[in-house]
Design a protein that fits this description.
The complex is a heterodimer of chains A (425) and B (293).
Chain A lengths: L1 H23 L7 E8 L6 H21 L7 E8 L3 H13 L5 E4 L6 H10 L3 E4 L15 E3 L4 H19 L8 E7 L2 H18 L2 E8 L7 H10 L3 E5 L2 H13 L6 E5 L7 H7 L7 E4 L12 H18 L6 H20 L4 H10 L29 E6 L2 E6 L21
Parallel strand pairs in A: 1-2, 1-3, 3-4, 4-5, 6-7, 6-8, 8-9, 9-10
Antiparallel strand pairs in A: 10-11, 11-12
Chain B lengths: L3 H29 L6 H19 L3 H24 L7 H23 L14 E4 L2 E4 H23 L1 H11 L1 H6 L4 H23 L11 H14 L4 H21 L5 H15 L16
Antiparallel strand pairs in B: 1-2
The chains are: A alpha/beta (425), B mainly alpha (293).
């Protein structure tokens, strides 16, 4: 009797363990698989670089502990510091030659990814970009280069999608009646987002345009630009800004009482950084920024596999930072590393000749991965705009909250049209 | 042209800011013959001083302004003793490398201590503007402009009529003869450097309620301040003020009429054009750069 009871208990424990394994769908990884992580850890870009490394580490630990590692092995990192393009190239070479990695991921900045990916190509190493948005990176016919995030043209594509599908009817206008003013800082990021937005707005929706006006982000005065904008009276301002110029513009636009019905930005700079809200408090209310999902995001709208990894990621971030609000660097790095895991698991090898077809064959709908992303790479190694689901966030009472697409969020866009400066409360 | 009043106001206010930075730079060059490439970083430190005094001690920037003068003076004195004193008689190459090195060190120190984030000192009155005749005047910029004019006038008077000012001018004209006359030139340089840093530190405090604060914030102003100093005539404070206003006028008018992307090209063309006609600058004295050496 006693033996029978013990047999039942042991069998029960085994069944529970197996059940847990089935739920996780994975076995514990054996052996190690090392990749290179290349980010700016010193210098001007270090804040974002460190956030990205933290995002990679959070996702790496999740992959190892809850999702079976990569190709059945425990994922480990060799880290390099890409303080500038020269260092990015030399560190990419070191990671490949000395550390022996076959895959390098990084480097987030458009100033670094070109140099890093070329150095990786010379070493015949796969370069897996998770954040940099310079469109030129995937247009050099380098077979080793892949990017999980949309590029600058993707930002423009989404911004126009939002303007056409959401703002136009909220403003009571046809898309062809909308007058869009384009203002941007003059980096490759700003120009690529702006030019792709202009092209799509004009060709697909027949929107009218003002500008574009480009400026150096280190400018000391935007009053003349604001005066020109006032004279043209646009409906919407499409403004791609870095941090200092976004703050300068917002202050001077208020001084000049520049009234526009909506301000739309893209990316984790300027209006898309927490610093903008800290700078202005509730006076920041109104502008939109295209980003990864923020507060209000409804995880239940994702596919089951997407929900599982998104929940696990959010729990891990909260355990690490104590905050429910995710940083863009965490989201991009973790989202990109998760897609790399899916690619390696599918390819079962890091041999570029077999890895590349496996990556191009990945076909996951929106909602399948972290950030609600889907996956479909094209021949250039660029993940598809439509699959890398992006979200429009709006500054509302000191926070950036998710407002679009509406099916993914509990929040709704406010102040459309924006109205007088002192009434955006 | 309804925007003309606003363009004029913008020129005056922006020019005032450039002048504020340029006067300390031209003072240091005028007396010591040292081009201070770390000038922008001392401006940045002044901005952070105002930011932290406001955030942690709730000091209004104009209260911090008063405190910043002795603090910046002390920082200037210490940096002279620690960094500049050994190289003040060295070649220009050594001076350039030293001040560039100081600039890089201060920038990176700020990055380590305060990160690269752009912050903004938002006072209760940051959005207060005075509207006269179709032009909007930002209050903080009016104060900065008024103090730039006052500072230039004050330094001009100090250099012209005070005993220390006369000693400084004597040292600027002939370092060796001054020493023979019993002037402690080392002390004069220390005072000059410290006064120059106090000026730019105060400028930083005045700029903090107007512009975002971040470790490289000084660079965007100081390049234009160099242009103003050279354009006005090396060591000439009134010249620096007028040149700063001229640069601002070209920037504002160029941005409005041609495009913001062209404004650097335009003021640098003005710079080159004036130097072709007047190599010593608008009010400069030929050979000023070699005086006192």
């Amino acid at each position: 009797m006693k033996t029978a009871m013990w047999t039942v208990i042991v069998l029960g424990i085994v069944a529970l363990a197996l059940g847990a394994g089935i739920v996780q769908g994975q076995q514990a990884p054996t052996g190690e698989y090392k990749i290179g992580v290349l980010e700016p850890l010193t210098g001007n870009l270090a804040v974002q670089g460190k956030l990205h490394v933290e995002g990679y580490e959070i996702m790496r630990d999740l992959i190892n502990t809850r999702f079976g590692g990569v190709m059945g092995k425990k994922l480990v990192f060799a880290v390099g510091d890409a303080v500038d393009p020269t260092a990015a190239a030399s560190e990419a070479t070191r990671l490949a030659a000395r550390e022996g990695v076959k895959i390098i991921t990084g480097t987030f900045s458009s100033t670094l990814c070109g140099a890093a990916s070329e150095a990786a190509a010379r070493q015949n190493v796969i370069y897996w970009e998770t954040s940099c948005v310079d469109p030129r990176m995937t247009r050099r016919n380098l077979k080793n280069v892949f990017r999980t995030e949309i590029d600058g043209t993707g930002f423009g594509w989404y911004n126009v999608e939002f303007i056409a599908k959401h703002l136009a009817h909220r403003l009571g206008k046809k898309t062809s009646e909308l007058k869009i003013a384009y203002l941007s800082e003059d980096s490759s990021y700003g120009q690529s987002v702006t030019e792709s937005a202009r092209q799509r707005a004009k060709q697909e929706f027949g929107m009218q345009e003002v500008g574009p006006e480009y400026y150096a982000s280190s400018t000391n005065d935007l009053t003349p630009v604001i005066l020109k904008l006032k004279a043209t009276n646009p409906d919407i301002l499409h403004h791609i800004a870095r941090d200092p110029d976004a703050i300068l513009f917002w202050r001077q636009a208020r001084e000049q009482n520049f009234q526009v019905k909506a301000v739309v930005h893209a990316g984790a700079t300027g209006y898309g950084t927490p610093g903008f809200g800290k700078a202005f408090g509730n006076d920041a209310n109104g502008p939109f920024a295209l980003l990864e999902p923020g507060p209000g995001f409804i995880i239940e709208k994702l596919r089951p596999e997407g929900q599982a990894v998104e929940r696990a990621f959010r729990e891990a971030v909260k355990a690490k930072t104590g905050s429910d609000v995710l940083a863009g660097g965490h989201q991009l790095a973790a989202g990109g590393l998760w897609v790399l895991k899916l690619a390696l698991d599918a390819a079962k090898t890091d041999d570029l000749d077999k890895f590349r077809p496996a990556v191009l064959a990945l076909d996951l709908p929106v909602g399948s991965a972290v950030n609600g992303w889907g996956v479909k790479f094209d021949e250039t190694g660029q993940n598809s705009n439509a699959r890398v689901q992006h979200y429009m966030l709006q500054w509302q009472n000191g926070s950036l909250v998710t407002v679009w697409p509406e099916e993914f969020t509990t929040h709704r866009a406010k102040w459309i049209p924006l109205g007088p400066w002192d009434q955006r409360k | 042209m309804t925007v003309l009043p606003q363009l004029i106001v913008s020129t005056l206010l922006l020019g005032g800011i450039y002048a504020l930075i340029a006067v300390g730079l031209t003072l240091i060059f005028g007396v010591m013959r040292v081009v201070n490439f770390a000038h922008g970083e001392f401006l940045m430190l002044g901005m952070y001083l105002a930011l932290f005094a406001f955030a942690r001690l709730h000091f209004d920037p104009y209260v911090t302004l008063v405190l910043s003068l002795p603090i910046s003076f002390a920082v200037g004195w210490a940096s002279y003793r620690g960094v500049m004193r050994p190289i003040v008689h060295a070649s220009h190459n050594v001076q350039v490398f030293t001040t560039v090195g100081l600039s890089i060190a201060l920038q990176n120190l700020a990055l380590v201590l305060w990160t690269a984030d752009a912050r903004f000192l938002r006072t209760d009155y940051y959005a207060v503007v005075v509207r006269i005749g179709g032009a909007a005047f930002n209050v903080a910029q009016i104060v900065a402009f008024a103090l730039a004019v006052a500072l230039t006038a004050g330094l001009f008077a100090f250099m012209r009529w005070s005993y220390i000012g006369k000693v400084m001018r004597a040292t600027a004209q002939d370092r060796d003869a001054s020493a023979l006359m019993g002037i402690d030139t080392d002390r004069v340089y220390a005072i000059t450097w410290a006064v120059g840093i106090a000026c730019v530190g105060a400028a930083g405090v005045l700029l903090a309620p107007i512009y975002p604060v971040y470790p490289t914030a000084g660079l965007q102003f100081v390049l234009i301040a160099y242009v103003a100093v050279v354009l006005g005539g090396l060591g000439d404070m009134a010249g620096a003020l007028i040149a700063a206003l001229a640069v601002a006028a070209v920037e504002v008018a160029g941005s409005y009429t041609i495009g913001t992307a062209w404004k650097e090209v335009l003021y640098l063309l003005l710079f080159i054009g004036i130097l072709v006609v007047r190599p010593a600058g608008l009010f400069g004295q030929r050979g000023a750069e070699a005086l006192g050496t």
